[in-house]
Amino acid sequence: MEFELWWLLALPITFGLGWLGSRLDLRQWKRESELKRDAPLSYFRGLNFLLTEQQDKAIDAFIEAVTADPNTVDLHFALGNLFRRRGEYERAVRVHQNLLSRNDLPAAERQRAQIALAQDFFKAGLLDRAEAVYTTLAASPYKSEALAALLQIHERTKEWPRAIDIAGQLERLGAGSYGRQIAHYWCELGLQRQQSGDIQGMQEALEQAVQAQPQAVRPWQLRAAIAQQQDNPPQALEHLRHIAQMQPDFTALVALDAARLFQQLGQADAGRAWLLAQLQDYPAIDVLDAVLLLEADASERYHLALSYLQTHKSLLSARRVLDQSSTALSPEPARLALAQAVEGALKTRQRYRCAACGFEARNYTWHCPACQGWETYPPRRTEELQLITP
Ligand SMILES: [Zn+2]
């Protein structure tokens, strides 16, 4: 017991002695070198400038401290981060390159400086150089950070085979599930191949997409598009119906295309019945539009729209009723004025909204241009989203 108490006292004493020793050392070290004596001074001057919000002067003072004193590795990092946060990427690059030019830098600090430098390049939009530095870190403790950054770079430069490779590596590292992303990369690669006329290559890419994520909707949508191009409407329709069966929520996204295919095949009645059943189970304005397209009778169309409005009281469905009510509503000018008012109110409310960041897009998109997320848009227009979300 006593022995332990003794230790409890000894610890702070040892610590205090060490601290005193380091201060004594510091004084001696200050006396020894004129250059080194200036370094802490400019450091404190820099702090003073920071406190008085003179950032430019603070940075100059820090630079002076950093160049004068070779032992201020952490100050280098602080300064570099400060530059990067202010958007001064060139200066951030110089600070980190300065660190890397030192031969005495320990390996751990060197890797830390490399990752910081890669971040500078990335932020500055110098993707080639960022990629080169991140690649050298693929075997370092920063491996998963470097791979995640490389993935972002390949996405931006649309190098899909490399993105697929890196996403696979990340998955094997245990960094989460990348199946959904990989499926989209294969779809993007397929579209690239299609643009260069390689339809066979596109089909193979879509097959890989389905393997990467069996529940993926997009490859089937692209397969339907190919079938349509190849003048094979039955095949195209089959692919779209597969989507509705597999992910019924996404029927909204393919309903109008399916309706047109039914029309083209002379199966309007069968199509209308199928779409009505879909509308019943997974109501969405786009499915209603598809049903209306296949309904020849004007008064039946009006009643379909009205009954949808009664269960889904949104501006979108109100507009459909107005559109179908040319005979039911009179006089005509009143109907037109109402339609225009609804149209105006709807202007910003029939878009799609990213569930991850809230960014709104006029057309459905698989890749959010704002937060770079994949498949973050629900297949519902914002006006109906408000209706469904409590
Ligand atoms: Zn987003």
Descriptive overview:
- With 390 residues, the protein is an all-alpha fold.
- It has a domain at 350-390: Rubrerythrin, domain 2, CATH 2.20.28.
- It is built from 20 helices and 2 strands.
- It has helices at residues 2-32, 34-51, 55-68, 73-85, 89-100, 107-123, 127-136, 143-156, 160-172, 179-195, 199-212, 218-229, 233-246, 251-264, 268-281, 285-294, 298-311, 315-323, 332-346, 382-388; strands at residues 352-353, 360-361.
- The protein has a two-stranded antiparallel ribbon with strand order 1-2.
- A hairpin with a 6-residue loop joins strand 1 (352-353) and strand 2 (360-361).
- It is elongated.
- The chain starts with a helix and ends with a helix.
SSE arrangement:
Blueprint: H1 2-32, H2 34-51, H3 55-68, H4 73-85, H5 89-100, H6 107-123, H7 127-136, H8 143-156, H9 160-172, H10 179-195, H11 199-212, H12 218-229, H13 233-246, H14 251-264, H15 268-281, H16 285-294, H17 298-311, H18 315-323, H19 332-346, E1 352-353, E2 360-361, H20 382-388
Antiparallel strand pairs: 1-2
Bound molecules: zinc ion (ZN).
Brief overview:
This protein is mainly α. It has a domain at 350-390: Single Sheet (Rubrerythrin, domain 2), CATH 2.20.28.
Write out the strand line-up for the largest beta sheet, numbering strands in chain order.
1-2
CATH top-level class of the domain at 350-390? Mainly Beta
How are helices and strands ordered from N to C?
Answer: HHHHHHHHHHHHHHHHHHHEEH
Per CATH, the architecture of the domain at 350-390 is Single Sheet
Poorly predicted runs of 5 or more residues? 20-38
Reported for the largest beta sheet, the result is: 2 strands, antiparallel
The ligands bound in this entry are: zinc ion
Question: Roughly what fraction of the amino acids lie in strands?
Answer: under 5%
Form type:
elongated
What is the number of beta strands?
2
